[in-house]
Design brief:
five-stranded antiparallel sheet, rod-shaped, 15 helices, alpha+beta
């Protein structure tokens, strides 16, 4: 069924209908011609039968005239009565020949004519013999009577044979009439059925053409809208299109192709020669080399060049194209021309900024080297000499001097922590990001061991649920746990046993308000404590480098630890958020993607 439906929708259907309609028209013409021929033949046969019958009647009439003339002569002895007798021989011969010609295609009639000729000759012999005896005065009544009697018998045979011929001609005419009636009986019905089939085919073709016309109008409307949309897209996208008919070697430019060159749409004849006039002289040879094989190549690789617009502006264009073949087998080379001037300029700006960034990175690398070597070396000496001074001469120094030395020790210690935290933050940014599938429970235990002394000093309690197995950077994830647990221990409340809860659950992003509205799955890890907490308005500021919510005299720290946490989570394509309640505690929520 689908196959026939496809045939109906194709142009082959109309071609088949056209051929069948022509064939049926010729067939009806042939039937009509045959019908006319039958009518003509029937008319000819009817006229011929009429002529045969008439001529036979005439023939027997001539013989009767001869016989009547002879009898008149016998009774009156007047020669004038013999005139029909003498004329009848020629007339009989002419009439007989005509009948013979008219019935030459009938074997039956030709056989009857042979017998009729025999009787006619015999009759004429009897007439001649009787007339001869009378003219010679050899009057023999018995002989004459005998001749007359035999002549009568022959005349009866002539009449009988002529009646047979008339009857045979009538039978032949009846047979021909029957054939004609049979032909006339089925021919109209056959023609009527044929006309019905033709009408059905023509109606189907009309419906198909009407549907095609409707579809064509719809397609034209869609094409018109599509062309307008394409023209608008070319304007918005700042590009133009062109076509090259490979058989005729003719070009077509879109309206925006002219606008890109600074001209009104269709302001000049579209051709490669005209377009090359706009190409920058320094790029002309390059463009000619790229486009010289368009008639033989199937693709035109993207290439960038400069043009000089009508208003003198120099713009950067990028061209590309390929060969397409339509349903008729005609090949056309289609291409696009994009104005990429802004892209080229932006690329140059990016390259300049990349060079600046590269310089900055080199300076940061130098800073890291200084921080890890040059700054630590004098710091170690300061710490060493202060330590020696305290060990040997601390008691010999005035009370004010001792306070100064204590402050110097404290400052050197903070400097040591600050340098270590900066190095840690730098390594978090620069470290090679090698992911491994690892159990986070093991990393959490390692972090606890790292902070074991502080946990023991604070008598802290750490509770955790089962953590997942994820693809992570192991040492960074361990550092994340160290920093978050260390932060909770540092900001614990006095006379309150620190309690840290670590919980994990699998969630979908759509269920969390803080995450993008996607169907991605995340592991949600919450680190909750019962410390001093913080005001929620500072929830985002605590992740900023060197940002501190408390005075350095209240709590030790550099303001780098949570910034490191945020960087580690970002390295894992995750999210981290903080929630605080003063004198109640804080909660740090981490979302890590499952893949």
């Amino acid at each position: 069924m689908f196959k026939y439906l496809q045939l109906y929708k194709s142009t082959v259907f109309l071609k088949v209908i056209f051929v069948l309609s022509i064939a049926i028209i010729f067939f009806i013409a042939a039937i009509t011609f045959k019908h006319i021929t039958v009518l003509k033949n029937s008319s000819i046969w009817l006229n011929k039968s009429y002529e045969v019958n008439t001529e036979l009647e005439r023939l027997i009439s001539y013989i009767k005239d001869a016989e009547t003339g002879q009898r008149g002569y016998l009774l009156s002895k007047d020669d004038s009565y013999l005139q029909p007798y003498y004329v009848s021989k020629d007339l009989v011969k002419v009439s007989f020949d005509k009948v013979s010609r008219l019935t030459k295609n009938s074997r039956t009639q030709q056989s009857n004519l042979k017998k009729l000729l025999y009787y006619i000759n015999k009759k004429q012999n009897y007439l001649s013999k009787s007339l001869y005896l009378i003219k010679q005065n050899k009057t023999d009544e018995l002989q004459i009577q005998k001749n007359l009697t035999e002549g009568k018998i022959v005349m009866d045979s002539i009449r009988s044979k002529i009646e047979d011929m008339i009857l045979a001609e009538q039978n032949l005419l009846n047979e021909r009439q029957k054939d004609y009636e049979d032909t006339m009986a089925y021919t109209p019905i056959f023609i009527y059925l044929t006309l019905l089939v033709t009408l059905f085919l023509i109606t189907s073709a009309f419906l198909k053409m009407n549907n095609d016309l409707s579809a064509l109008k719809k397609a034209n409307n869609i094409l018109m809208v599509s062309n307008e949309a394409n023209n608008l897209a070319e304007i918005v996208g700042n590009f133009g299109s062109w076509q090259l008919n490979l058989e005729k070697n003719t070009y077509i430019f879109s309206d925006n192709e002219f606008r890109l060159l600074g001209h009104l749409p269709q302001e000049f004849e579209a051709s490669l020669e005209e377009f090359l006039k706009f190409v920058h002289p320094d790029d002309l040879e390059f463009v000619i080399e790229k486009t010289k094989n368009m008639s033989s190549d199937t693709n035109l690789a993207p290439f960038t060049y400069r043009i000089i617009r009508k208003d003198g502006q120099i713009r950067y264009f990028r061209g590309l194209g390929r060969v397409v073949e339509n349903a008729s087998g005609q090949k056309t080379f289609i291409g696009t021309t994009s104005d990429v001037t802004e892209e080229i300029y932006d690329k140059k700006i990016i390259e300049d900024r990349n060079r600046e960034l590269e310089t900055t990175n080199k300076e940061l690398t130098a800073f890291n080297y200084i921080a890890s070597h040059d700054l630590q070396e004098p710091l170690r000496k300061i710490e060493t000499f202060i330590s020696r001074l305290v060990d040997k001469d601390f008691n010999n120094i005035s009370e004010a001097g001792q306070q100064y030395i204590t402050r110097i020790q404290s400052s050197a210690s903070r400097m040591r922590v600050l340098i270590d935290d900066l190095l840690q933050f730098s390594r978090t940014n620069k470290a090679e990001k090698v992911f491994e599938k690892i159990d986070l429970n093991g990393l959490l235990e390692n972090a606890k061991q790292e902070l074991a002394q502080l946990i023991e000093d604070k008598n802290a309690i750490i509770e955790n649920t089962e953590l997942p197995i994820l693809n992570v950077i192991p040492f960074q994830m361990q550092q994340l746990f160290i920093n978050l647990i260390g932060n909770s221990l540092k900001y614990s409340r006095e006379n309150v046993t620190p309690l840290i809860k670590i919980e994990s659950s699998l969630i979908t992003a759509t269920t969390e308000e803080l995450l993008p509205n996607t169907k991605d799955k995340f592991y949600k890890i919450c680190v909750e404590d019962n410390g001093i907490g913080f005001e929620q308005e500072y929830a985002n500021k605590i992740f900023i480098l060197f940002n501190r919510l408390h005075n350095k005299n209240q709590f030790d720290g550099t303001g780098i630890g949570l910034a490191i946490c945020k960087k580690i989570v970002e390295n894992h394509k995750g999210y981290i958020f903080a929630e605080g309640h003063p004198n109640e505690g804080s909660t740090f929520t981490i979302y890590l993607p499952t893949t």
